[in-house]
Amino acid sequence: MKSNKNLILLILLSLVSIISIIVGLASKWVFSYNLWIGLCLLTICFILYYQKHKKFKSFFGIMLILGVFNIIRFVPFGFKINFIFIPFEVLPTFFLLIFIFLNKNRVIDLIQDWFTTSDEEKEKSSLSKYASFKKDFRNLSDNEIENRLNQVLVPEAKKALIEIIEERSCEKK
């Protein structure tokens, strides 16, 4: 159902574009390359919706973001709002906000994927810390190691100290 809502959003944006182009042609406006690129991307969006439906939402979202920053245009005229010296196009921003609302679960998942590290990266980081601690603690005496174990340590440091003690006890036997 949400994909149908995205299609309706795409159709609305296309209708606004078509109406504004008709007005522009009647007024003999000169259209910029940004507009032609935007119209081509709108057409590609329709093709993606029917041919490669999984890529449609991503492409549509990226296209709207490009429109917000005036890299591409959907209408021959612009309404800009400056926010901290950064200009935003009103029409694409409006459509982008609706798009985000319609796809909020997917957008939240994408944001979480960007800002969270994978289990593999966490494991690699943990092993790197462990190896570094083991190298740093290797030259400590047994008493210094025991004193360090009584302190509050990160798990990797504690693991390195315990392994050094176990290795030394095996060497003594």
What does this structure look like?
The chain has 173 residues and is mainly α. It is 75% helix and 5% strand. The chain is built from eight helices and two strands. It has helices at 2-26, 33-51, 53-68, 90-102, 104-115, 119-137, 142-149, 155-172; strands spanning 80-83, 86-89. Strands 1-2 form a two-stranded antiparallel sheet. Strand 1 (80-83) and strand 2 (86-89) form a beta hairpin. Helix 1 runs antiparallel to helix 4 and helix 6 packs across helix 8 (155-172). The longest helix is centred in the first third of the chain and has 25 residues, at 2-26. The radius of gyration is 29 Å and the shape is rod-shaped. The mean pLDDT is 85.
Give the SSE layout.
Blueprint: H1 2-26, H2 33-51, H3 53-68, E1 80-83, E2 86-89, H4 90-102, H5 104-115, H6 119-137, H7 142-149, H8 155-172
Antiparallel strand pairs: 1-2
Helix pairs in contact: 1-2, 1-4, 2-3, 3-4, 6-8, 7-8
List its traits.
about 170 residues, mainly alpha, two-stranded antiparallel ribbon
Q: Count every beta strand, where a strand is a DSSP E run of 2 or more residues.
A: 2
How is the biggest beta sheet arranged? 2 strands, antiparallel
Mean pLDDT: 85
Instruction: Compute the separation of the termini in Å.
Output: 70 Å
